[in-house]
C-alpha cells in the first residue's frame, strides 16, 4: 500500500519558528520520523512521499486544500499525519489534513497527545495517542504504525489501537426501535448497570482564564467579537448563523464606530440597538478613551469578527487557535472578546 | 378498581388502495371516493381540496407534510373516536376499535410556522419515516381567500380526522386480520415483584401551529396529568404541531405510541406497565422546572420505579428532558430519555444541547445533522417545490436528516441510533 506522510516544517528539516510560515511542499520517499515509520510499516507498505507545511501557514485559509492537493499527486492508499505530540498548531494541521483526506475518500490517521487542542478538529478521521514530546517519538511511532496497518486492512480503529477523541456520532439502523431499546435500558439500569447508555455525556472544554496583564499601559490590546459587526455592505459576506469563517477589518479612526457605516449581521438577536450604536458590540469608543488616557499601551489596528450563532464547536475552536496565533505574531498581548 | 376493559384492536391490514366511485374495504383493498373524501374535508376556510394515493415503493415524494392520522373507528355509528374533536369522550379508550393498519391520511401543504417536512416512498429516506411504509391518502388544499390561517389549520385537522374515521368505518363489517387485546388502565396483572415502569410524554405546546390537543383541548398551559394509555388508541392526543420535521410526533405516532407499546410488550413478564403521564413543554425555564417537579411527584406518588421520558422538538425541548430525568432520579426513580443527537454533519460536535446531570441513561434516535441524498422522483405531492432548498419537489436533493418526517422520532418509532 502507498502511504503519504504529513509533517510540519520542523520534522521536515526546514527549521523551527523561523520557518513556521513556509508554504506546502513535498518530496518522494520518507523524511525525518517518516523513515522509522516506513521501517515499522514492513514490506507490504511504503511511505511513498512526505508532504509538509509550516505551522503558521497551515492554520491559514486554503492551506489544507493545498496540502491535500500535494497528497493526492502520490495516489496514496492511506495518509498519516504526525505525531504532533502537544504542539497545538501542528496538531491542528495534522487533524485537519487527516479530516480532509477522509472527506475525500482516502483512509487517514493522525497522531497526537490527548491534550492537543487539535484533537477535536479531526472530523471523521481517527486519531491515535502519541507521547507529549518528541523524546517519545519511538513508542509514538510504534502505535501509529500499528494503527496504519490496521487501517489499510479496512478495520475501524478503536481504543484498543490507541484511538483517542470522540468517535463520530453517525447514524446506523439498530435491530430494535428506540422505544424498545429505551425499555431494555430501563431494565438494565434497574438490574444494577449504573453506566448503561447509548449517548456518552458530552465533553465541554473548561477554559482557564489567562493571568492578568501586569501593566496594561505597556501592552497592545486587540478587540475581538463574535457579534457579527462588519462594514455596512458586509464585503466579506460574513454569515448570520453557523459561521464558517472569521474576518478582520481596520479599526476606524476617531472616537468609535459610526452608526450607519457598520452593522451587525448576527442572526441570533434583534440588531436594531446594535446598529444604532455599533460601539455596544465592539466598545471602540471606550477603548479609544483608555488609549488616550494611557491606561492601555495602544489598540491593535484591526479587529477580528465572526458570528457566534449556532457556530459549530469545531469551527469556534479553529477560530480561537487562529486568532491566538495571529495575535501572538502581531505583538498584541491582551484581547477583549465581546460576546452577544 | 376500574373494571372497564381496555381497547380491543380489530386490525384490518390494507394491502392495496385505489380511488373509485364509492368508499369501501374488501379483502385488503381500500377504495376511496375522492368526491366523498373532499366533501368530508371541505370547509369555508378551504377553497379547494385534492386527494391522491401514494404507496410504498412508488417513485413519489410528499413535501410540506403536516399531520398524519391512522384510520380508526369505534364501529357502526362512529362513537367515541378522536374524542373531544370528532366524537364524545364517553366510551373512548375501552371496547373494540377498528384499525386500518398500513394506511394513513396525510395532510400536506403550506401553513405558517410549519417547517417543511419530506416523506419519500422509496429510496434511502423511506425506511426512516413511518409514512414510508404506509399507503398514504394525501390531502392537498388551497386556503379560501381571506381565510384566517388558524381557521385553515382547524379545518384541516377536523377534516383529516373525519376522513380517517370514515375510511375505518368502511372496514367495520369485514373480518379482522388480527385481534389485539390491550390491558385496561391500572391493570396490575403480573405485577407481583415486577418493577413498575411508566411513560412520561412531553407534548410541544407553543401556541397555534405548534400545539397538541388532548381530548379536543389545546394542551398549552395545562398541568401534567395521567392519561389512560387506552385513550391514545382512540385518538385522544391529536397533533397540531408542525415544527421540527424529524422531531415531531404526529397523531399517527401518538395512536401507536411506541414507548407505551414497548412497555406493554414486556408487561407481566419483565415489568408492570404503570401508565402514562403527559406534560406540556413550556418555553419558559421556570415553568419547565415547575413541570418537571410536578411530573416527578406524580410518578413517585403512583409508586413507579422507573420512567421512559420523551419529548417533541429540538433545542429547548432537551431542557425539559434533562430537568424531568434529574427530578425523577432525585425522587429515587430510574429515568431513561430518548434524545436526538445534533452532532454536526460529520458527527463530531457535542451532540446533546442540555444533557441531564444526574440521570445519565439516554437512548439515541440518530443524528439530526447527518446528510442524505434523495433521488429524483416521478411524482411529488404537497407542493411544487421545496422552498428550503429552492428546488422542484421532484428533484434530487441533499438534505439533513432533520427534514425527513419523523426520522428521529422522539417517541421512539425509528431504529436509527448513533455510534
Report on the structure:
The complex is a heterodimer of chains A (340) and B (419). With 340 residues, chain A is an alpha/beta fold. Chain A has two domains: 2-164, Response regulator (Rossmann fold, 3-Layer(aba) Sandwich); 216-338, no CATH class. Chain A is built from nine helices and 14 strands. Chain A has helices at residues 33-41, 55-58, 63-73, 88-103, 137-152, 178-190, 272-276, 284-293, 313-330, and strands at residues 2-8, 25-28, 46-53, 78-81, 108-112, 127-129, 163-164, 171-173, 220-225, 229-231, 247-250, 262-264, 298-305, 334-338. A seven-stranded mixed sheet of chain A has the order 2-3-1-4-5-6-7, with helices on both faces. Chain A has a four-stranded mixed sheet with strand order 11-13-9-14, with helices on one face. In chain A, strands 10-12 form a two-stranded antiparallel ribbon. In chain A, helix 4 links the parallel strand 4 and strand 5 (108-112). In chain A, helix 1 packs across helix 5 (137-152) and helix 3 (63-73) crosses helix 4. The termini of chain A are far apart. Chain B is of the alpha/beta class. Chain B has one domain (7-403). Chain B has seven helices and 28 strands. Chain B has helices at residues 34-41, 149-169, 229-233, 251-255, 258-265, 285-301, 317-330, and strands at residues 7-13, 16-20, 24-26, 29-33, 46-54, 60-63, 65-69, 72-73, 95-101, 103-108, 118-120, 135-143, 178-181, 196-204, 210-214, 217-218, 225-227, 237-241, 272-281, 306-310, 334-341, 361-367, 371-374, 379-381, 385-386, 391-392, 397-400, 416-418. In chain B, helix 6 runs parallel beside helix 7. The N and C termini of chain B lie far apart (46 Å). The chains are: A alpha/beta (340), B alpha/beta (419). Chains A and B meet through strand 8 and helix 6 of A and helix 5, strand 21, strand 22 and strand 28 of B.
Amino acid at each position: 500500500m502507498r502511504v503519504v506522510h504529513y509533517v510540519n516544517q520542523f520534522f521536515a528539516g526546514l527549521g523551527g519558528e523561523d520557518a513556521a510560515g513556509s508554504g506546502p511542499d513535498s518530496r518522494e520517499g520518507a523524511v525525518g520520523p517518516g523513515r522509522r515509520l516506513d521501517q515499522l510499516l514492513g514490506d507490504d507498505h511504503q511511505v511513498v512521499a512526505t508532504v509538509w507545511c509550516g505551522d503558521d501557514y497551515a492554520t491559514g485559509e486554503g492551506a489544507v486544500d493545498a496540502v491535500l492537493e500535494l497528497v493526492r499527486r502520490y495516489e496514496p492508499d492511506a495518509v498519516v499525519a504526525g505525531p504532533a505530540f502537544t504542539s497545538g498548531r501542528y496538531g491542528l494541521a495534522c487533524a485537519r489534513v487527516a479530516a480532509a483526506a477522509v472527506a475525500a475518500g482516502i483512509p487517514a490517521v493522525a497522531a497526537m497527545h490527548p491534550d492537543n487542542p487539535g484533537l477535536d478538529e479531526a472530523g471523521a478521521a481517527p486519531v491515535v495517542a502519541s507521547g507529549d514530546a518528541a523524546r517519545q517519538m519511538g513508542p509514538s511511532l510504534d502505535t501509529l504504525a500499528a494503527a496504519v496497518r490496521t487501517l489499510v486492512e479496512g478495520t475501524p480503529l478503536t481504543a484498543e489501537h490507541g484511538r483517542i477523541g470522540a468517535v463520530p456520532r453517525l447514524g446506523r439502523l439498530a435491530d430494535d426501535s428506540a422505544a424498545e431499546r429505551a425499555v431494555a435500558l430501563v431494565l438494565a439500569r434497574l438490574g444494577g448497570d449504573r453506566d448503561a447508555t447509548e449517548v456518552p455525556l458530552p465533553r465541554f472544554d473548561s477554559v482557564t482564564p489567562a493571568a492578568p496583564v501586569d501593566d496594561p499601559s505597556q501592552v497592545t490590546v486587540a478587540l475581538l467579537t463574535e457579534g457579527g459587526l462588519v462594514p455596512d455592505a458586509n464585503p466579506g459576506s460574513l454569515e448570520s448563523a453557523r459561521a464558517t469563517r472569521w474576518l478582520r477589518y481596520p479599526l476606524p479612526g476617531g472616537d468609535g464606530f459610526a452608526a450607519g457605516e457598520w452593522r451587525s449581521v448576527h442572526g441570533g438577536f434583534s440588531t436594531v440597538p446594535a446598529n444604532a450604536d455599533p460601539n455596544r458590540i465592539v466598545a471602540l469608543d471606550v477603548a479609544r478613551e483608555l488609549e488616550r488616557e494611557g491606561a492601555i499601551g495602544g489598540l491593535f489596528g484591526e479587529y477580528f469578527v465572526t458570528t457566534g450563532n449556532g457556530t459549530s464547536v469545531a469551527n469556534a475552536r479553529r477560530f480561537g487557535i487562529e486568532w491566538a496565533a495571529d495575535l501572538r505574531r502581531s505583538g498584541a498581548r491582551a484581547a477583549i472578546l465581546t460576546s452577544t | 378498581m376500574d373494571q372497564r376493559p381496555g381497547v380491543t384492536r380489530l386490525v384490518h391490514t390494507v394491502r392495496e388502495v385505489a380511488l373509485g366511485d364509492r368508499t369501501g374495504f374488501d379483502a385488503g383493498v381500500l377504495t376511496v371516493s375522492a368526491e366523498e373524501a373532499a366533501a368530508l374535508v371541505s370547509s369555508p376556510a378551504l377553497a379547494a381540496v385534492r386527494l391522491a394515493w401514494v404507496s410504498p415503493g412508488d417513485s413519489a415524494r410528499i413535501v410540506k407534510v403536516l399531520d398524519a392520522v391512522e384510520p380508526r373507528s369505534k364501529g357502526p355509528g362512529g362513537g367515541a373516536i378522536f374524542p373531544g374533536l370528532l366524537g364524545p369522550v364517553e366510551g373512548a379508550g375501552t371496547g373494540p376499535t377498528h384499525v386500518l393498519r398500513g394506511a394513513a391520511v396525510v395532510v400536506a401543504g403550506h401553513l405558517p410556522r410549519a417547517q417543511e417536512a419530506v416523506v419519500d416512498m422509496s429510496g434511502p429516506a423511506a425506511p426512516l419515516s413511518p409514512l414510508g411504509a404506509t399507503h398514504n391518502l394525501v390531502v392537498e388544499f388551497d386556503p379560501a381567500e381571506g381565510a384566517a390561517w388558524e381557521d385553515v389549520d382547524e379545518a384541516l385537522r377536523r377534516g383529516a380526522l373525519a376522513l380517517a374515521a370514515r375510511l375505518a368505518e368502511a372496514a367495520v363489517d369485514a373480518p379482522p386480520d388480527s385481534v389485539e387485546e390491550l390491558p385496561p388502565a391500572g391493570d396490575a396483572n403480573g405485577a407481583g415483584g415486577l418493577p413498575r415502569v411508566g411513560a412520561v410524554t412531553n407534548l410541544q405546546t407553543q401556541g397555534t401551529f405548534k400545539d397538541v390537543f388532548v381530548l379536543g383541548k389545546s394542551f398549552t398551559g395545562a398541568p401534567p396529568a395521567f392519561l389512560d394509555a387506552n385513550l391514545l388508541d382512540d385518538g385522544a392526543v391529536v397533533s397540531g404541531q408542525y415544527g421540527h420535521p424529524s422531531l415531531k410526533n404526529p397523531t399517527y405516532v401518538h395512536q401507536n405510541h411506541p414507548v407505551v407499546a414497548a412497555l406493554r410488550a414486556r408487561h407481566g413478564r419483565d415489568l408492570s406497565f404503570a401508565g402514562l403521564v403527559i406534560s406540556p413543554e413550556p418555553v419558559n425555564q421556570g415553568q419547565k422546572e415547575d413541570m418537571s417537579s410536578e411530573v416527578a411527584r406524580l410518578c413517585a406518588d403512583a409508586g413507579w420505579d422507573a420512567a421512559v421520558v420523551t419529548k417533541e422538538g429540538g433545542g429547548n425541548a432537551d431542557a425539559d428532558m434533562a430537568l424531568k430525568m434529574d427530578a425523577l432520579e432525585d425522587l429515587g426513580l430510574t429515568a431513561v430519555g430518548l434524545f436526538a443527537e445534533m452532532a454536526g454533519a460529520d458527527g463530531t460536535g457535542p451532540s446533546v444541547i442540555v444533557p441531564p446531570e444526574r440521570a445519565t441513561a439516554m437512548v439515541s434516535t440518530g443524528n439530526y445533522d447527518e446528510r442524505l441524498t434523495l433521488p429524483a422522483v416521478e411524482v411529488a405531492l404537497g407542493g411544487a417545490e421545496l422552498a428550503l432548498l429552492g428546488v422542484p419537489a421532484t428533484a434530487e436533493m441533499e438534505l439533513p436528516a432533520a427534514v425527513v418526517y419523523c426520522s428521529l422520532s422522539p417517541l421512539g418509532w425509528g431504529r436509527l441510533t448513533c455510534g
